[in-house]
Amino acid sequence: MNTFTRLMRHLMTTSLAGRRAFPDTTLQAIENVIAEGERRHRAEVRVIVESSLPLGAVLRSMTARQRALALFAQYGVWDTEDNCGVLVYVNLADHKVEIVADRGIDRRVAQDEWQEICRDMTGGFRHGAFLQSTLDAIGSINALLEQHFPDDGSSTNQLSDKPLVL
Q1: Which long-range contacts (CB under 8 A, 24 or more apart) does 134-139 make?
Q2: Can you name the CATH fold of 3-151+158-165?
Q3: pTM passes above 0.90
Q4: How much is the pLDDT for 158?
């Protein structure tokens, strides 16, 4: 996709699109699934949904992966006690989902597993199944985290479970 087409897509994908895809009831359901999963593992899961990139980021050809990494740092997902933060980043304009895992998890979970979850989410999104696709993805993430970072009674909630819509 050329820069002009991408720019137009980002300009046309407003915050209203984000609210339609992720209304309050959907955000609450996502928050509940994150909280329930975090009772079974020591990791921290954060979901950030962005309708479109800032204009300057599009003009600089920032990718969804680069944006996810920047938000991972900006929102302190990397700053967990066991280096076990996971960011699920959704960019509606680019039709992309990125998962960024902190180094404690990245050593144990293969990139292919994260990519499969991303593919399943974007596939569901193409059919308008934003809620179910996101809940299924978080369920898969929670299962991986429970396998590699099971709850040992020592964890505390270090990041908000509430999804963030930018």
Answers
A1: 134/22, 134/26, 134/30, 134/47, 134/88, 134/90, 135/29, 135/30, 135/33, 137/88, 137/97, 138/30, 138/33, 138/34, 138/37, 138/45, 138/47, 138/88, 139/33, 139/37
A2: Diaminopimelate Epimerase; Chain A, domain 1 (3.10.310)
A3: yes
A4: 85
